[in-house]
Model the fold of this input.
Amino acid sequence: MFARTSSSFISTLTNHAFRRSTVNPALLSGLTNLRTKQVGTKNNSDYHVNSKHWMSDSTSSSSNVPVPTDDVQAAREARKAEKERQKAENKAKQEEKLAQEVEANRIENVTYLSFDEQENYNKMGDMTLVMSRSRTNRQFTDIADLEDSEKYPIGSKVWVRGRLQSIRVKGGSCFIVLRQNSFHTVQALFFKDKEDPDGSKKMLNYLKTLTVESIVDLEGRIVGDANVKSCSVQTIELSIERIHAVSKAQPQLPFLVEDAARSEAEVEASQSTDRPFPRLGQELRLDNRWMDLRTPANNAIMRIQSAVCQLFRESLYSQGFMEIHTPKLIAGESESGAGVFTTDYFGTTACLAQSPQLYKQMAISADMERVFEIGPVFRAENSNTRRHLCEFTGLDLEMAIKDHYIETLEVIHKCFVHIFTGLEQRYAKELSVIREQYHSEPLTFTEEPCVVHWPDAQEILKEKGFDVGDGMGDLNGAMELALGEAVKEKYGTDFFMLDKYPSQIRPFYTMPDPVDDRFSNSYDMFIRGLEICSGAQRCHDPELVQQMLAKKGIEPGEGLKSYISSFQDGVSPHAGAGIGLERVVFLYLGLDNVRKASMF
Done:
């Protein structure tokens, strides 16, 4: 019975091997030899084969299941090897096919040399690194001008360079938004062309490789009858004809510009929803300031900062001033009472200028009767507050006066009125963008200077519950804000001046009050209750200057000798002021931190 079973088993294996489409010769030979051996056996006892080949006697008595011989094992190994060979062969074919597809869809970089040769270039692909190889003679269009139908009629083609604000590729279509100058956006689109399926496929594949915030060149045909509410250009779109990445952004950005552009109110309101917006911390923004400045509001803040400088210059030029440029690496302190940064200067100690104070006074002695400067100022004051910076831009002015420092206050007031009105009239768009993210009301101011005297300010603060002591101490931040509220309530202005500060809290070069030398002919100016400017009539008498130095315990070093000498040769009475640019912008816009008004 066992012999028949074994013979039948071998026969089955052999027949199965013959039926396979691909027969391994070694397998077929092994099965045939094994079958021959079984058929040639005469004696039943011979069917009790050695346990090495089939089974032991003890096993055969308890089970009729055959045990494979070495030849059967070899056959199994052969079958396994054949399967592995076929698997490897199929894998190689698939890889070859994939490589062919990759090669067919490869998008080469484009070296764009001339508009006249444009038809010879691929319609998509990264632009070869721009290295001033040639002038391509492409005429680029500003996104802000695209809705000018006389310049750019429907159906005309335009080249636009912009930043990829967003991209969405789905199926046979793609929608992208290009941004220029942080403000102006336009939608561009691409749809699969049934007449050119291969070209459309390559275009869509390339569009998928583009990353948000990349710089791209796009040639598109103007399409009308659009209604794109999410873009600044709403009535037209661009149908993509060509597109090339000029500079690709990394796929993983520090944060999305879209997230950085949301107002605090919008972020706060989202926290109770299923999809809260991320709240970006100040350190993250400042560490990646170039990204933060791409947002419309923050970019506009820098434009307002530029505008303040422009308007400051305009006003002072119109009032007979000239611009000067003074040293920033000096021998000694330029401001008593202000921290100074020191550095080595070929074996001697030098200071970074805390202001152009001494030099602009010496300019008056040089018969430059009205001067101003816009330049860096350094203060080594470890004041980590929302309104202090160690380095800022100073708007400084100095002028000769005939009789009274009020002459200077009038000049400065006229200058600020020009700045305030100029911002609202000439930069209304930028202000609107800023106020969408950082809410503030337009600044109020008076036509004539609003000057509050020190004794009056002390009475106002007492009425508001502040302990002013003997009235000889400086104002703290809370006092300034309270005083600003009171002035706004009484005079209806956010911009005012406070004069007659105590002499003990002003620099040595400040002219004392002629009636009571405990006070001085000095003044500060405020916007929304915080100081933006400090100034005074200066001591122009050399003996009085030396007395003031001695009174404050200051030893006149090398840095002050030339300063005093300039007065000994005759100098006009004069007064001036130093204004912090970033603080003016910060307070005018009602921002919560002066660092938002500083570029870096």
The two ends are 96 Å apart (CA to CA). Residues 1-6, 16-23, 34-62 have pLDDT under 50 and may be disordered. The longest helix spans residues 70-104.
